[in-house]
């Protein structure tokens, strides 16, 4: 019998530049699935949101307590920008190494975003202080105007909000989170060195047909919402093309199954357990495996001014597909793990 060595891919430990870990039992249950990332930028949309450096430091401790012993992950904390955010607290938190970035949610845009910004003039002093101190602003790039169609909200946000904000605050470093459209990709491409974009694995893997054709699939419902195939193709091009302004931010967002499978279901896909195998599958299809390390491990760290990881992970391609945990327990709840609907042949190599 001939033993054929399966293809292997060794890359510097990846970072996840957009992650939801929640709190309490949900945090304890889901954080271990992200423990293999080096750095993870943790979103602040708890109830109540994380709005001060002190709250971010306390949340960081709770995350560290929820991670398995010896976990690689170093949580990178964000503050939730509100119209009452104190510029001095942001810059002091950043100088102390507690605050990595500030997150902008337009009021009402997504899960727990009611405290978000309505009037940008009110946050101008914070944005100016952030520009001066080099603190990036991470943006949920969708307008919340009910008159704008949900599939157009990202594209409209670029013209109506992001461009004016960036013009008004020169030098502000901005990450357009979870880019989902061709317009978003083009905007990031043309934005110069102070602008970057994160891309999720679910927006790379499926288009809106997966969510809506042949029955509605609530576990594919996320915000920004899945778009047409032409947009998914633009994202694949951006992620796999080696352009340094694009990097991984999974937006992995656990919700209890009863809240997803409901007459008014929550937005979010829990992708953390399969992120890297699924990415390898997608990069292989695009004939771009050598560029996976840039997207997942190098570009994001460089944008945030951090050194690349010193250690590595290995992915291995096997004949038999990955069998992800279909559903995990979180206290009294269960959470369904994202399933792209096609086989994933890449696996984390057991140590
Ligand atoms: Zn998110």
From TrEMBL:
Pfam families: Amidohydro_1 (PF01979). It comes from the Bacteria. The active site is at residue 251. The modification N6-carboxylysine is found at residue 103. One of its GO terms (cellular component) is cytosol. It catalyses: (S)-dihydroorotate + H2O = N-carbamoyl-L-aspartate + H(+). Zn(2+) 1 binds at residues 18, 20, 103, 251. Substrate binds at residues 20-22, 45, 140, 223, 255, 267. InterPro entries: Amidohydro-rel (IPR006680), DHOdimr (IPR004721), Dihydroorotase_CS (IPR002195), Metal_Hydrolase (IPR032466). One of its GO terms (molecular function) is zinc ion binding. Its EC number is 3.5.2.3. PROSITE patterns: DIHYDROOROTASE_1, DIHYDROOROTASE_2. Pathway: Pyrimidine metabolism; UMP biosynthesis via de novo pathway; (S)-dihydroorotate from bicarbonate: step 3/3. GO terms for biological process: 'de novo' pyrimidine nucleobase biosynthetic process; 'de novo' UMP biosynthetic process. Binds 2 Zn(2+) ions per subunit. Zn(2+) 2 binds at residues 103, 140, 178. Gene3D superfamilies: Metal-dependent hydrolases. Residues 16-307 form the Amidohydrolase-related domain. Keywords: Hydrolase, Metal-binding, Pyrimidine biosynthesis, Zinc. The keyword Repeat does not apply. The keyword Nucleus does not apply. Catalyzes the reversible cyclization of carbamoyl aspartate to dihydroorotate. Belongs to the metallo-dependent hydrolases superfamily. DHOase family. Class II DHOase subfamily. Homodimer. This is Dihydroorotase. It comes from Paracoccus suum.
């Amino acid at each position: 019998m001939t033993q054929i060595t399966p293809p292997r891919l060794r890359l510097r430990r990846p970072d996840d530049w957009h992650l939801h870990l929640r709190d309490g039992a949900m945090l304890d249950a889901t954080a271990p699935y992200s423990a293999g990332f080096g750095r993870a930028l943790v979103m602040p949309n708890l109830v109540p949101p994380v709005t001060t450096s002190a709250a971010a430091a306390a949340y960081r401790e709770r995350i560290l307590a929820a991670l398995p012993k010896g976990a690689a992950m170093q949580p990178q904390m964000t503050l939730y920008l509100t119209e009452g955010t104190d510029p001095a607290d942001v810059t002091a938190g950043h100088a102390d190494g507690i605050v990595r970035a500030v997150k902008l949610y337009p009021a009402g845009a997504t899960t727990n975003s009611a405290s978000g910004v309505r009037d940008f003039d009110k946050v101008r002093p914070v944005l100016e202080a952030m520009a001066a101190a080099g603190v990036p602003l991470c943006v949920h790039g969708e307008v919340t105007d009910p008159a704008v169609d949900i599939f157009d909200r990202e594209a409209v946000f670029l013209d109506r909000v992001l461009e004016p904000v960036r013009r008004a605050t020169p030098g502000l470093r901005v990450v357009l989170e979870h880019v989902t459209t061709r317009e978003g990709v083009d905007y990031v491409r043309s934005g110069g060195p102070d602008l970057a974009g994160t891309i999720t694995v679910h927006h790379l893997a499926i288009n809106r047909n997966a969510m809506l054709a042949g029955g509605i699939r609530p576990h594919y419902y996320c915000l920004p919402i899945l778009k047409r195939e032409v947009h998914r193709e633009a994202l694949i091009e951006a992620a796999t093309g080696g352009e340094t302004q694009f990097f991984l931010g999974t937006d992995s967002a656990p919700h209890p199954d009863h809240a997803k499978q409901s007459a008014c279901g929550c937005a979010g896909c829990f992708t953390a357990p399969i992120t890297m195998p699924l990415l390898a599958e997608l990069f292989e299809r695009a004939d771009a495996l050598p560029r996976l390390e840039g997207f997942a491990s190098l570009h994001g760290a460089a944008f945030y001014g951090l050194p690349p990881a010193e250690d590595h992970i290995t992915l291995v391609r096997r004949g038999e597909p990955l069998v992800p945990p279909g559903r995990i327990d979180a206290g009294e709840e269960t959470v369904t793990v994202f399933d792209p609907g096609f086989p994933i042949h890449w696996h984390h190599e057991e140590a």
